[in-house]
Design a protein that fits this description.
The complex is a heterotrimer of chains A (365), B (319) and C (295). Chain A folds into two domains: 4-233, P-loop containing nucleotide triphosphate hydrolases (Rossmann fold, 3-Layer(aba) Sandwich); 240-355, OB fold (Dihydrolipoamide Acetyltransferase, E2P) (Beta Barrel). Chain A is built from nine helices and 20 strands. Chain A has helices at 42-50, 92-102, 107-120, 136-148, 166-183, 194-200, 218-223, 228-233, 267-274, and strands at 4-13, 16-26, 31-35, 57-62, 65-66, 77-80, 154-158, 187-191, 203-208, 211-216, 240-249, 252-256, 262-264, 280-285, 290-293, 301-310, 315-321, 324-330, 341-346, 352-355. In chain A, the strands form four sheets. In chain A, strands 6-7-8-3-9-10 form a six-stranded mixed beta sheet, sandwiched between helices. The radius of gyration of chain A is 25 Å and the shape is elongated. By secondary structure, chain C is mainly α. Classes of the chains: A alpha+beta (365), B mainly alpha (319), C mainly alpha (295). Chains in contact: A-B, A-C, B-C.
């Protein structure tokens, strides 16, 4: 196993920058998820690490070796693809053996390693089958096996679960996590599903528009998103973002809405607002930190419910607030009707404030 | 950016001819090696002949093809062609031939494709039989039909006489009025299977859901065809018709073997006429001038051809 | 008729309407079958008649004394007609096979490149290749004839093979590109990560998958070369070099009334390509439509 260092990585296609000055370090044995919406440059970044496309500028090191100019075959990596990329004309056995044959290992050793991998992944009985005779989950496991037999320095995974159905995806998610724990493998895992990233990764790199937005542990990213994009991308349902305006009332800094209501701020939050570049402030809050009242209470602001979605143990309510849609979660025992007037109370210690111009998170210190 | 498919296509985002183009070509130098064998062969056998033909069209040439003795005559060959009666006769024949063959081949092929679209017992056999004329040589087809049209012992004549429609077998081939339609029938016989194959493939791409939706909306069979199937096949149809038109415009074998252009030029089309000028009467310069004119017409057709294919190509890229 | 066994698949539809369209389709198919098959049937019937029996009015619809004499004559190497015919046959086979082999060797890398790489000018090159399909042989005849004379290839099969290669290549590349487009690029990427070079990935992973496409391309090249007439007619003048289409024409311009012989020769000439087509039509039709009809 080895660590991976990306230094100021750039990939341009003509005048289009697919990857913009991305720098990050993946520690030895670490599970890192590259996450972002489609077209954010995460797969391109992975392909650059794999050597499948040439880099425009920057540096990639695997272990202590700069691999910029090495062929994929010389980088000591294994990759699992979204569509599995199993060789359709070869049996499962031959699929697993192919990377070893390419490395010119002796026949007996290939046989031993293939059978070991098959045993680990519980598919010894499938060895003679062709890929098209396997289910999606089995194909996924073969793809994983083909990466595993090689014992590579780094595993690269490109949305390996997105072609599976929901139930199988949850199951394979824990299998891959288990696989990582057992092997202490270095894994770079690309996904557009923030839930996969949050549940599996040691650290996640959130990307958008080819730029690395935030690189930290899932807990940190969740608790302290650096900007509005990360705030809205991580977490489900998404963090609600309400555009407001900062003004002064009676010497206190408050947020006002176009609808006319006023939201007072704590001293700490007022200091954050003071650091903003303009008076445009975006209020962010996760669904679990907003309290819903059916009648007016002091400090709560008026809103109107839009939809009510019971999920069993929790009920999600969407409401209009100052022209934005806000997600709130309430216990299933609370009965809320659509199109009803409600009042929302924000927890001053758990709201997020963003600069409306720069979209960056505002900090008090 | 289609990062998910791994097909990083820069062509849409990078404007042509920017300063980086040379550098990009250098970066891709290895890729060219794969295409190089084709390009070299193409250059030798295509670019050179085209240049040569254009050049020769401005000269009066001796019959021997001893081209040292050629004389520059400027546009004389062209004016000679455009002022000759034969040119207009042959052009009209070519229009009738190309248009008639293309329209009927397409309609019959499309009809057969529709009739064969639904599965039934014996469909595979029937499809194979219908395609055979397209596979066999046009020379063989010409002889078969020449025998069928034979003025004394032809089977069609025999049938017509037997049914009492005519008193003696008609002479299809040696008649100025019937020769061109008779040859077009032979050409359609060989060409409609191509249209059939193309349209059968096209029909398979018509989404079933759309047809079912139309049925739910109350459309009858004809309305479903007209509003769902046919519009869906427009790009395949365009490509098919263009390919048929080009190939019919370029026909040679059937008229050449069956009639040699006769009687009295009634079945001469451009290609047979050019061939006769060049290799029959050794008038290389005039034949070359003809070829250049033909070339210009084909360029116009080719423009539509590339546009039709180009539409296809970009749709394919978008997936 | 085989379609008589057809049953309505969806019984809910109004019967009268369904029957109207279906009967129209059936009648149309029968007529097309007649149009297609009758000339071929008449060729076969004529070929087993004697010369005298063929020239009767009204004709013998079924030969009264069927004979294989025409076939025996064509296939007898002792007979001068048979010796010529067999020689033409062999020439055609040689030229078509060589063209096919070379076309596949050249077209495979080109089609792969067109399908995979995004080098500048790729689109331009592809259309240049396709455009070649548009120009008639006549445009190329004179200059090619002179070129062949320069190369010393007039009256050799080499001139034909080289020429057929150029008119066969555009379509071969087009057909094969359709196949390569359908092979996911991730397979090669996986192979390269598994330790293969780019070339190994092509050879070990992509090539085996494109075998159906290569077969289809090969059949197409073979059939096109086998049936080609105009270049062979122009480039070859020596009798022992001729290919079948030209040879038959030469031969029967001297024996204009031997229609059974002519029909037998036409039949024999069609046998190789028709058999090849019928055996491999699955690949053939698929390739043509995958190249042309993008989904």
């Amino acid at each position: 196993m080895a660590h991976v260092v990306l230094k100021d990585l750039v990939k341009t296609y003509g005048s289009f920058n697919a990857v913009n000055h991305v720098s990050l370090t993946v520690n030895d044995g670490e599970f890192v998820a590259l996450v972002g919406p489609s077209g954010c440059g995460k797969t391109t970044t992975l392909n650059l690490v794999a050597g499948l496309i040439p880099i425009t500028s920057g540096e990639i090191a695997i272990g202590d070796r700069v691999v910029n100019d090495l062929d994929p075959k010389d980088r000591d990596i294994a990759m699992v693809f979204q569509n599995y990329a199993l060789y359709p004309q070869k049996s499962v056995y031959k699929n697993l053996a192919f990377p070893l044959q390419m490395r010119k290992l002796p026949r007996e050793e290939i046989d031993r390693k293939v059978k070991d991998a098959a045993r680990v992944l519980d598919m010894t009985h499938l060895l003679e089958r062709k890929p098209r005779e396997l289910s999606g989950g089995q194909q996924q496991r073969v793809a994983l096996g083909r990466a595993l037999v090689r014992d590579p320095a780094v595993f690269l995974m490109d949305e390996p679960l997105s072609n599976l159905d929901a139930k199988l995806r949850v199951q394979m998610r824990s299998e891959i996590k288990r696989f990582h724990q057992d092997l202490k493998a270095t894994i770079i895992y690309v996904t557009h599903d923030q839930l996969e990233a949050v549940t599996m990764a040691d650290r996640m790199a959130v990307m958008n528009g080819g730029f690395l937005q935030q690189y930290d542990s899932p807990a940190q990213v969740f608790a302290h998103p650096v900007n509005m994009f990360v705030a809205s991308f991580i977490g489900s349902p998404a963090m609600s973002l309400v555009p407001l305006e900062a003004t002064t009332a009676d010497g206190e800094t408050v947020l006002t809405s176009a609808e006319g209501w006023i939201l007072p701020l704590s001293a700490r939050n007022a200091r954050k607002v003071a650091a903003a570049t303009s008076n445009k402030i975006v209020l962010g809050a996760r669904h679990s930190t907003i309290k819903l009242h059916k009648s007016a209470v002091p400090g709560a602001v008026p809103a109107k419910t839009y939809t009510v979605e019971p999920t069993g143990d929790i009920t999600f309510v969407q409401a209009f607030l100052a022209g934005a849609i806000v997600n709130i979660s309430v216990p299933p025992t609370v009965a809320v009707a659509p199109d009803a007037a409600v009042w929302l109370e924000f927890d001053q210690d758990r709201i997020h404030l963003f600069d409306g111009e720069t979209e960056m998170a505002l900090n008090a210190d | 950016m289609t990062t998910a498919t791994g097909r990083a296509e820069p062509s849409r985002t990078s404007p042509r001819g920017e300063p980086g183009a040379l550098r990009a070509m250098w970066q891709h130098r290895v890729d060219y090696a794969y295409v190089l064998p084709s390009i070299v062969v193409m250059l030798i056998v295509i670019a050179y002949p085209i240049y040569y033909t254009i050049d020769l069209s401005f000269y009066k040439t001796p019959p021997s093809l001893q081209l040292r003795d050629k004389i520059f005559v400027g546009m004389e060959n062209y004016t000679a062609i455009l002022s000759s009666d034969v040119f207009w006769r042959v052009t009209w024949n070519t229009v009738v031939w190309t248009f008639g063959s293309t329209v009927f081949s397409f309609m019959l092929g499309f009809g057969a494709a529709l009739a064969l679209h639904r599965d039934f017992f014996g469909r595979g056999v029937m499809r194979a039989i219908l395609i055979i004329p397209w596979v066999i040589s046009a020379v063989a087809a010409s002889y078969i039909w020449k025998w069928i049209y034979h003025s004394d012992f032809g089977v069609i004549g025999a049938v017509l006489v037997g049914l009492g429609i005519t008193s003696r077998p008609p002479n299809f081939i040696d008649n100025v009025d019937t020769v061109l339609p008779a040859l077009i029938v032979v050409n359609i016989w060989r060409e409609f299977p191509f249209a059939m194959i193309m349209m059968m493939a096209g029909l398979q791409t018509v989404p079933d859901q759309l047809l079912r939706a139309a049925k739910v909306d109350g459309a009858n069979a004809w309305q479903r065809f007209w509003h769902v199937t046919f519009p869906h096949l427009s790009s395949v149809s365009t490509v098919t018709v263009l390919l048929l038109a080009v190939s019919n415009f370029n026909s040679f074998i059937i008229p050449w073997i069956m009639t040699g252009g006769g009687p009295s030029n009634a079945s001469h089309i451009w290609i047979t006429h050019i061939y006769e000028l060049a290799f029959g009467r050794q008038r290389w310069g005039v034949a070359s001038a003809y070829s250049v004119l033909l070339f210009l017409i084909l360029m116009a057709l080719g423009y539509f051809y590339v546009r039709a294919l180009g539409g296809n190509e970009s749709k394919d890229r978008g997936t | 008729m085989s379609i008589a066994g057809e049953r309505p698949v969806i019984p809910r539809r109004s019967r009268r309407q369904v029957d109207g369209w279906r009967w129209a389709g059936r009648i149309f198919l029968v007529l097309m079958l007649l149009y297609t098959a009758a000339p071929m049937a008449w060729m076969l019937l004529t070929s087993i008649k004697s010369g005298f029996a063929a020239m009767q009015m009204p004709p013998q619809w079924w030969p009264e004394e069927p004979t294989l004499a025409s076939y025996a004559k064509l296939l007898d190497p002792q007979n001068s007609v048979g010796a010529d015919f067999l020689r033409f046959f062999w020439n055609s086979l040689f030229v078509s096979t060589m063209t096919t082999i070379l076309a596949v060797i050249v077209a495979v890398p080109a089609a792969y490149a067109f399908s995979r790489f995004s080098f500048p000018g790729r689109k331009f090159l592809f259309f240049a290749v396709l455009l070649r399909n548009m120009f008639p042989a006549v445009i190329f005849l004179v200059p090619l004839f002179i070129l062949m004379r320069v190369l010393g290839l007039v009256n050799t099969h080499g001139s034909l093979i080289l020429t057929y290669l150029t008119f066969g290549l555009p379509l071969a590349i087009w057909l094969l590109k359709g196949f390569y487009d359908n092979i996911p690029i991730q397979l090669e990427q996986a192979a390269r990560i598994d330790g293969a070079t780019r070339f190994q990935a092509f050879l070990l992973i992509v090539m085996p998958l494109s075998v159906p496409g290569i077969i289809a391309t090969a059949i197409y090249s073979f059939i096109a070369a086998w049936n080609e007439y105009i270049y062979a007619y122009t480039f070859l003048s020596k009798n022992d070099q001729l290919t079948l289409p030209v040879g038959i024409q030469r031969f029967f311009s001297e024996n204009t009334t031997d229609f059974p012989g002519l029909m037998a020769a036409s039949f024999l000439m069609s046998v190789p390509v028709v058999v090849l087509f019928l055996v491999l039509q699955r690949y053939f039709v698929r390739a043509l439509t995958e190249g042309a009809v993008k989904h």
